Amino acid sequence: MIKKLILAVLALIVFAAPVGAVLAQEETPAVGPIYIIQAGDSLSSIATRFNISLQTLMEANQISDANAISAGARLVIPGLEGISGILETNILGFGETLQNISRRNQVSNKILARINRITSPSELYAGVGVVVPHAEDSQPLNKRMTIPAQASLLEAAILAESDPWTITSLNNLPGTWSPLPGDVFYAPGASQPDQPAPNGMPSAFAQVEIGPLPMVQGQTTKIIIQTQPGVTLTGMLVDMPLRFFALEENRYAALQGVHAMLTPGAYPLQLQASLPDGSQQAFEQMIIVQTGYYPEEVLLVEPETIDPATTETEMAQILALTSPVSTQKLWEGMFSSPSYYNDCFTSRYGNRRTYLGAGTDEKYYSFHSGLDFCGGEGLPITAPANGVVVFAGPLAIRGNATIIDHGWGIFSGIWHQSEIKVTTGQTVTAGEVIGAVGGTGRVTGAHLHWEVWVNGIQVNPFDWLGNTYP
Fold it and tell me: In CATH terms, are 201-292 and 296-466 the same topology?
């Protein structure tokens, strides 16, 4: 009897051990760096980004439903041997380089290239997300320093309240002899407001601020540059020449619209600096432009209003009126709504529109170039900002129209009015009545259409109601 009992116990141990081992294995959490899910991410896109299968990612995180994720949640990324901590997504700023990101975050170039699957430095487009690993509670270095011409690392390190050996170690340099003048390095401690920007740009561009990044169809791009003394700036964004205006000594601003129909992708931003001695410095980097996710609309209109002979002639007239650039900035702060109903809209900017000619097979595909406000015939229209009227009269498509020059290449267009109450050449102030709501031109009913032009491009007027430019 005792012998049988011992055999039974041994049998239980033999058969139970593998089951226990399997359970323990299933309950053991996966080990690896943690990725913070970003808005717009999917498990499939995350798996592709880190070059692993969707099944592997789901199994590592014990996920049964690929759609059951949310922004801010944490995922273990398997297969990244030798990498630990939090995988944080940083938006790459204009002028930033792989070397700059490496030094600031104390991560080797090799690891950054491996995580982000970078095969060439030219792939680092401004506005793209770069995954950077760091310890849970660590912070990137932000005290920047450069070595002036004819100065030594010792002198620069002392000015940064550090020493050559600490700077060499923090920036992963081969030796104290290796730093080059003008390059950007990092030192321990807090940054100072007047320190150079963390980028790999030529010395003429002391500070560069570009926003928003990534760029979006229909947005207004703001470029602020602090230069060395005596520098003259020019540039191009996509295919539009940039116009820089002085904000204060050695600090300049350019505002440029991104076309609502521009195909999403990477486009060049070129900056050129002419120095007092006649020499030139330039920098170019590709910038990401994202879709604005604009919806589709279909409108039935009179056939003559979509005749190319009419639409193209009138657009050429509008372009001619909005091309001259005044060097005087006339507006102050944010624009104000030109409508009595300032928070009620019948159609938003950017909507893709198919116009159908009533009773014909004629079609015209375009986009909604402004913001349509609620409100009926005769309601007052006010100037959205200070400016000078450069056109006030009837147009075939836009009806009774008023165009206001606000300076610096910024214009407002007010279309479809029942009555125009200003004249060409008149100076207007923000809030002044300039017309009345109507239904003239290509419309389906009386409304106020307001659009904003920024250096030759129609942009989303709503941005100008909530942001201060520059």
Answer: no
